[in-house]
Specification:
about 45 residues, 1 helix, elongated
């Protein structure tokens, strides 16, 4: 499984990349269309 993943996260973190790969292996690539990347949010209260 991990041989397909680049050592550095391409669009998100490495953990996100591994999750997407595991999700595709489990549910199939056609179900991956329902996933979306989470973008970083700056907390304005701190």
């Amino acid at each position: 499984m991990t041989d397909k993943i680049k050592p550095k996260g391409s669009l998100g973190s490495v953990a996100e990349d591994l999750f997407v790969e595991l999700f595709c292996d489990t549910f199939g690539p056609d179900q991956a269309q329902y996933l979306f990347l989470q973008y970083p949010v700056t907390d304005i209260y701190f």
